[in-house]
Write a structure and sequence with these properties.
It is a single chain. The chain contains 6 helices and 3 strands; from the N terminus they run αααβααββα. It has helices at 26-32, 39-52, 55-64, 71-78, 82-94, 114-129; strands at residues 69-70, 98-103, 106-111. A 3-stranded antiparallel sheet has the order 1-3-2. Helix 4 (71-78) packs across helix 5 (82-94).
């Protein structure tokens, strides 16, 4: 049986539950210390997720998840102008999420590497289960 989709309207959500008492579990804190991201790495990752927080860019990634495509093909697929596609691809390229190759007068884009492909597929799978 499928679970209902969660309501993503965060303005309607109650505060996250908190502990009734303030007690720091030092053993847990110490064991997690090595796992917490350094601030600079967290900032870089937040920038990537910020770029991904756009419907058009996610649609472009979804189109590129199965094969490389040229700008004209991406524009036709997403019903966006070529100029708008180029603008979004430029942002994705700066964040190293897509790469490109030139063939004659055409430029073909693809997802940058297996990490980006796996991230995309993991997100799709996660939200298919919801």
């Amino acid at each position: 049986m499928r679970k209902p989709k969660p309501d993503l309207d965060l303005s309607q959500t109650p505060d996250a539950p908190t502990c009734d008492t303030h007690l720091v579990h030092l053993e847990n804190v110490r064991s997690s210390q090595a796992q917490i991201l350094p601030t600079q790495k967290a900032q870089q990752m937040a920038e990537v997720f910020g770029v991904l927080a756009d419907t058009n860019r996610l649609r472009l990634l979804s189109a590129l998840a199965s094969q490389e495509l040229c700008v004209c093909d991406l524009a036709a697929l997403t019903k966006m102008s070529e100029s708008a596609v180029c603008h979004q691809l430029r942002l994705l390229k700066v964040m190293r999420l897509v790469s490109y190759r030139r063939e004659g007068r055409n430029v073909y884009y693809s997802l940058a590497d297996s990490y980006i492909i796996n991230l995309y597929h993991s997100l799709v799978e996660h939200y298919s289960e919801v």
